[in-house]
Amino acid sequence: MKPFNRVLTGGLRTRLVRVFLLQVLAISIATVLGVYAAAWVVERVLVQEALNGEAEYFWDRYSDNADFPLPDTNNLTAYLAEDSDTSTVPAWLRDEQPGFRRGHRQDDSSPVVHVSERDGDRLYLVFDEMQVSSLAWYFGIAPLTGVLLLIYLLTWVGYVMSRRAVSTVVQLADAVRNYDFRSGKLEELSEADFGEATDTETLALINAFNQFIHRLESFIQRERNFTRNASHELRTPLAVLRSNLGLLAKQSDPEARAKTVDRMNRTVRDMEALVETLLILARESESRLNWSSVVLNDLLADLLDQFASTIDRPEVATSVRANGLLEISAPERVLAIVFTNLLRNALSYTEKGHVHVLIDRNGVTVQDSGCGMSEADLERMFEPFYRGHDRSNEGYGLGLSIVRRLCDRFGWHLHADSELGAGTEIRVEFPQATFKPFSGN
Fold it and tell me: 316 CB contacts (<8 Å, ≥6 apart)?
């Protein structure tokens, strides 16, 4: 099997050519061997048996009638040497011994010779097979040659059709081999580039490759998002730790120090959960996130309390206003990331005034009375690294981009409205949330 395996190495077209050449070679060898085998059978079996029969027939008749004529036909000539008298026998036949063989005439022809002997007499049968061979050519070799030519023609047609059939596969292999995976943008393979007669199998390969490109792009995008999101999201808990460390150094009251340490421990736990969440978000599926029933009222109150200890804005009033409890089944850390970014953005761009969090039955609205945005800034506010007209605040312009990506991923609806100089309002709606009104509302 190893030599056969070597034949099947190389490209698809090369292998196809080799297979068809082997097929033609095998047919040719089989035909040649068949012709030689047929000639051997005709000469060694059929002709020999026929001459044996002719000799037996003559000897039987000659024993009854000494005047019985010798066989003499268009293809068969007989000579009889009585009592070893070979005067009537051609010179080239006289030395032939009993048996079946080919003789050699003076004209360089080689007829079939059959010599038999009985009671001192010797019978020479000379069979000239040239006419029989001519008949064999017309009725055997010529049709066989035509069949061979037809087989070769059909083989060539099969090769051409097979080459056309695999041409799209070869073209696809060349396209994949020359595909530039290092380019900035991974483009899909177009079915139109492979012709209208592209077979179903090649289309399946093209679709599979394009799906791989989509997955590869998503992997790259998640890696980029994780890199920038991790550095961005860790800023808030680190700021909380820094602030509490400063308070801890100044406090002497054990009870106050215990509260500060408790806030620091809570912040460390939040950082651990945040890192874990970002790592999971970098994967394809959110199935490994810890889903739970989250009361957004409590979550938002805790977030505002954390910001109160880290952002020094005495002239900014913050509040949570609600006429009921809004509860949703979702990963709590993801919700915390969303609203941490919204609150940080609102507080960062509000030097005086208020930041209100409004909770109703459909979702949560974060309002601020800050500098606001123009229509051009509003259209681009969710783009990564875009920071609008006011660049005096710290940050990298990633917070709202993270919010948009998370809302899109979990099916939450995000809306924004702003007026330059009047403030900004961003609303997150939760289609699957449960709202429980307070008594009296």
Answer: 347, 350, 351, 352, 353, 354, 355
